[in-house]
Amino acid sequence: MTFKNIAVIGAGTMGSGIAGQIANAGHNVLLLDLTKDATDYALERLQKSEPAPLHQRSNVDRITTGTIDEDFAKLADCDWIVEAIVERLDLKKNLYARLEETVSADCIVTSNTSTIPISLLVEGRSTDFQERFAITHYFNPVRYMRLLELVRGEHTSADVMDRLAHFNDEVLGKGVVPCNDTPGFLGNRVGVFALQVGMDEAFKQGLTVEEADALMGRPMGIPKTGVFGLYDLIGVDLMSDVVDTLGDILPENDVFHAVGRSNNPANGLINQMIADGFTGQKSGKGGFYREDGTVAVNLDGTTRQRVKDLPPAAQRAAELMQESKETLPSMIEGDGPHARFVRNFLGRVLSYAAHLIPEVTTTPQDIDDAMKMGFNWIRGPFEMIDALGAETVATLAKEAGADVPMALQSSIDQGPFYVAKGGTLNVRNFDGAPKLKPVQLPEGTQRFSLSRRTLTPLAQNRAASLWNLPGDIRLVEFHSKANALTGESMEIVAAAAENPGNGILIHNDAQHFSAGVDLNRFADFIEREAWDEMDAFLNDFQQAVAKLKYCNVPVIGAPSGLSLGGGFEVLLHCDALLTHANSVLGLVESGVGVVPGGGGVKTTFERWSVGNTPEDAAWNAWMQVGYGKMGESPEQATKLRYFLPDRDRSVMNRDKLISQATAWIAEMAASYAPPAPQTYTLPGKAILQKMDDFMSDGVAKKWFLPHNKTTAMEIATIVVNTDSDDTLQVTEQDMFDRERAAFLRLAKTDTTKKWINAMLAGEDRD
Predict the structure, then answer these.
(1) How far is it, in rounded angstroms, from Cα 320 to Cα 307?
(2) I need a labelling partner for 179 at 20 to 30 A (CA). Which of 79, 301, 618, 696 fits?
């Protein structure tokens, strides 16, 4: 089912990104373009772009480059070729004609097009070629966006589709959504329409760009960029091209045209911004937000200082999210401009999504998956309809001037789109008469956001839940805002250690595993000078992770996305990690003037002690924690000893984490014994002078701020015997105590207080 020789034709943003992901997966790939300059630039961009397209820069060595004219014959050896050239039908058809004359009889050819139907792409090609042709539409950036829209042509063979689906799922880590060969497929059709409706309604209701983004963002389960922020991120000019393209290919009766470029009230402003070079973040000048985000554009084109206060509806939603409660019903209450914006946005977008059934797909799951994996929505449109209730959505649609499509009416008549029955999650299917069918996922795939609907928690609070999986395996799920850890989070960790079943899995299905301990808690302690409470909080955290470490069953941490600070400290006390390939691991507390206080310094020192003298171990741990270093992939984290390749594992597809982790726990359980208590050898205080000199020199050269030195020297008190030149043997509890003491000393400083408050306010700490 795998491919041995892969080529990508077209070294632009998408082509190079596809080649980079193939290289990330450990496969060699041939990248061709018209000129050597184009491929050289592509390789440079892969190594320098942020966020990084490669797991590590050396992965670029797996990419061989060439030109289409000089190296075309090399394609004869390929078994899969991805075409990612410009969106011009004539150029693509000419390329396919050359490919048909060159490639082998079993070579699969796919296009990354998002706009041109297969029937036009393969026009004039033989039936044999058409049987081996499909569309593989990736989303940018390819490494991070999970969605692959896999589109079958009239003659594409089932075996070709199976091979492409399997390879992209298992090897490249994609969430594969099959799509009919209809204009815009699924992701862009719904996602771009939603952006255009958000913009349209912001103008109609007289909202500022900040108000629209705050409402059409986290409170709805959509990324915080909202509409105008996302335009800036993608590029105002690029988004305009996408909107124009969709307008060209969608049927005349599609309501998309009502918010397309020619009819959208933002059209004049967007044209002027493009003409003036304000095309978003890539331009260096900004777009709707400018001057490092401090200035915003009014919808009449004038500029002003950005307002960061949330609208009341967004504030209420934020409070509900903190309580792990539903946000949508509260957002549609009232009749002011904010409520009308939300009501009309939801009515129009959810109605539009329902209109795509059954023409574009017969199952709401495909549309929901496309929006979650291609646009990072927390929930898909049909999950949102279930949350609000179909009757409510129908009312919103009518108020906004939209129709009530068949699928939405069916939900009114028959019930929600998703229904849990007997431990199985079903989704309403429209292949014929509407009926419930089990949710379909590839073999070995589990998404806890779906499977949790069939389970009842063993324990639960606002911040976390404890679940029982098949095989009597416990799953600890964090679900607070940004999965920031609180005392309640650690209560669930401790509860798992006390009732561990046959093993414990630490995992959640959020975009990010955990941003660390909730800084609001520490800001409150500092403001009240509640030092005993702070010490107790830290001690409870330490004892919870210690219980996790020493409980009598295997413990696997299975993170994806950001795993930072306190969140990573929980993972450091697991027996092993099974990480998603895009996981970012690190201890970043020094950035706000504190130290890791949940065993992070202890464990970092412990890992650097292997094969090193106490002095070298202390220096390495001190430098690493002091700089707040992060590994932006398991490969990078290996260099920091935050990921141990002889013990830990990684997977390309985050949807494989649960199945592989639970199998690993079962495998470990038969002969499992908890680790023995640890002791540590700290070096004598002579090394403190080297550390002090390093920081003093850095402050003098303005590499560091004075408080960076204060923080660094407190980290030193944890890993160095500050009382004697002799080495010192300490216990694990001693190390915990040293961490808490250093944390408290820093928390009592004015600068740490300022830095924490600046971080919470989204401001520069200086």
Answers:
(1) 22
(2) 79
Q: Are 426 and 434 in contact (CB under 8 A)?
A: no
Question: For the chain, what is the largest distance between any 2 Cα atoms, rounded to a whole number of angstroms?
Answer: 83
Q: Which residue has the tokens 């069918």?
A: 437
Q: What is the pLDDT of residues 238-279, one digit of tens each?
A: 999 999 999 999 999 999 999 998 889 999 999 999 999 999
Q: Which of 508, 534, 517 is nearest to 450 (CA)?
A: 508
The rounded distance, in Å, linking the Cα atoms of 108 and 100 is 11
DSSP assignment letter at 515: -
Selection from 455, 487, 460 nearest residue 476 by Cα: 460
Q: Please give the share of the chain, as a percent, with pLDDT higher than 90.
A: 93
User: For residue 744, which amino acid is it?
Assistant: L
Question: What is the dihedral sign for C-alpha 628, 633, 639, 640?
Answer: positive
Please tell me what DSSP assigns to residue 417: S
Question: Taking CA 129 as the corner, what is the angle to CA 126 and CA 134, rounded to the nearest 5 degrees?
Answer: 130
Q: Report which secondary-structure segment, H or E, holds 87.
A: none
The answer to whether 475 touches 444, Cβ cutoff 8 Å, is: no
Q: What is the pLDDT of residues 563-589, one digit of tens each?
A: 999 999 999 999 999 999 999 999 999
CA dist 672 and 161 (Å) reads 42
Angle between helices 732-747 and 600-609 (to 10 degrees): 130
DSSP state of 521: H
